[in-house]
Amino acid sequence: MPKRDRGARARASAPASTWRQRRAVEVALAADRAPLELLPRLPPRSIALCLGLAILLLAPWPGYGRLFGPPFCAFGNAVIVVVGAGGDSAPRFSTRPRDSTATPDAGATDWTVWLAARSGDGPSRPSLPLETRILGYTPLALSLALTLSFAVSWRRKLRMLGIGLALLLMRLAIAIALPVSRAFSPHPAAPGPVSELVWYVLIDLPAMSYVAPLFGWWIAFAATRDGSAES
């Protein structure tokens, strides 16, 4: 009888110990995988594809600037209306200057859009040119190249692309709202330390047009997972 009791206790404890062992292995594997979720692995094929897409999208193809101008103007005008930048001057972006003091031939390119007051009682300014290639198009193109070349499922690519583009459009909205408010305000004031810091770190440095899409892509990668990893 004692031998049978010991055998029964051993058989009863076997499933529990086996479950504990499996659980310990799962925890160890999860601990090993966690750092990799924040440090994406880029195989050579993905790097080559990313470089190819970046060259294709950033090449000086004729007509790219004229195609990008109207959506940039629509987005910029929406930002101005939402944040109320410019006050009574009602400034708006357009693909051509609204006055005769500035002509499209005066140093303008296909990537140039123009900002001018349309109506209202606020201060008037001549049409101001703005180059959209580095400020607006380059970060969006690099974000698209990074996301499409990364070896993950298409569902995750779409989520990553949505997050990355949202972050870049927020940056672009800041780059539009702050200078428009300063240029068309009836009583321009010195910028505060917070807005000055945001402007310098996110927009003023030319390298940020290349760093911002990489940072946004990394945030999108860290915030998403493939369907198999979630299940």
What general outline do the C-alpha atoms trace? globular
Strand order of the largest sheet: 1-2-3
Round the Cα radius of gyration to an integer and report it: 27 Å
Quantity of strands, as a count: 3
Q: Distance N terminus to C terminus? A: 47 Å
Give the class from helix and strand content and strand pairing: mainly alpha
The helix count comes to 8
The ordered string of helix (H) and strand (E) elements is HHHEEEHHHHH
Ranges where pLDDT stays below 50 over 5 or more residues in a row are 30-36
- Into which percentage range does the β-strand content fall? 5-15%
Q: How many domains comprise the coordinates?
A: 2
- The percentage helix is 55-70%
- Summarize the biggest pleated sheet: 3 strands, antiparallel
Averaged pLDDT: 80
